Amino acid sequence: MRNVYLIFLVVFSFKTLYAQEASPEFKNKTSEEDEIIDNLLNQNEADELFNLSDDLDFLYVSVDYTNNTYFAGRDIGINQFNVTPQLTYINSNGFFINISGVYYSQFTPKWDYTSVSLGYGNTFGKNEQYKWLVYYDRYFFSDEENNPFKNAFNVGFEVTNKAKTLGTELTSSILFGSENSIQLTSSTYGEIELYKNKRNELKLRPELRVTVGQQTIQLARTFKYKGREITVYNENNHFGLLNTQLLVPVQYSINNIDFELGYIVNFPSALEGESNLKITQTFAFSIAYMFDL
User: Fold this and answer.
1) Other Cβ atoms within 10 Å of 152 Cβ, number
2) Strands (E), 108-256
3) Were both Cys, which of 1, 35, 44, 46 would link to 17 (CB 3.0–4.6 Å)?
4) pLDDT per residue over 61-73, tens digit each?
5) 223 has which bridge partners?
6) What is the mean pLDDT of residues 139-161?
């Protein structure tokens, strides 16, 4: 497929409000489900976006399916799948626009949000081993009131080896709306070609992704004073490691169609007020088609 891998893994991580039990003297201020779900999004990562010929404009359509849903690697106790359709136009000059959304099988409303992304990127260096990317995201939520982040500004930089079989990408995101936050994501990947001819290509692309972000942790301390029960709410800002994710996708391309089957393992890192976080795992499948323009 002209050596283009353009399946957008929509993995937006956002500032999260956690109301979790830190010790016997702490109780939840709100439900864990509401706090995590209402304030987590995904973050576009355009992987190998500009490995294109100079005269190529195209439209890329994809649908991603994940059989289990986790937020920042965390299990919120709801067994559900999610589906992410996407439409991307990429210009030969490096400009692109992406429209996507997320459907959750057990949420109400099931269609969580629609996002629109506008950006520009390019490669440089002797062997085009360096890439940079800037883009803006705008989110339109079905439930506007409980989602403080409506916008994101993102900057990405990637370096690969000469053969383009190893690479590392660093993306920083500033999230803003009624509240502000910041997130950093580092991705290191390898590419192993299993089979290739003029029409078909099969490859393995393992990736290790580390997400660091700002969290607002809300805890409630309840105690008795003169026979009355009193609850005091405390809010602490925390910046630290959120999740380490291992992705092992197998990608198959035939002409202009891409298929991908991946296994994902999350190793979430406990923040203040969290405990007993478990390793989570899921399978993901995607299908995509590229229209030459």
Assistant:
1) 24
2) 111-124, 130-141, 149-160, 166-177, 180-190, 192-196, 200-204, 207-225, 228-254
3) 35
4) 999 999 999 988 8
5) 230
6) 89
Distances (CA, A) of 55 to 108, 112, 181: 44, 37, 38
What is the DSSP pairing of strand 149-160 with strand 130-141?
antiparallel
Neighbours of 20 (CB within 10 A): 22
What span, in angstroms and rounded, lies between the C-alpha atoms of 240 and 270? 10
pLDDT digits (tens, 9 = 90+) for 105-118: 998 889 999 999 99
CB 286 within 8 A of CB 63: yes
Longest dimension (CA), the chain: 81
* pLDDT, position 49: 42
Rounded-to-integer distance, Cα 83 and Cα 100, Å: 10
Strands 280-292 and 130-141: unpaired
Instruction: Give this prediction's pTM.
Output: 0.76
**Is 219 within 8 Å of 26 (Cβ atoms)?**
yes
Query: 101 and 116 in contact (C-beta within 8 Å)?
Result: no
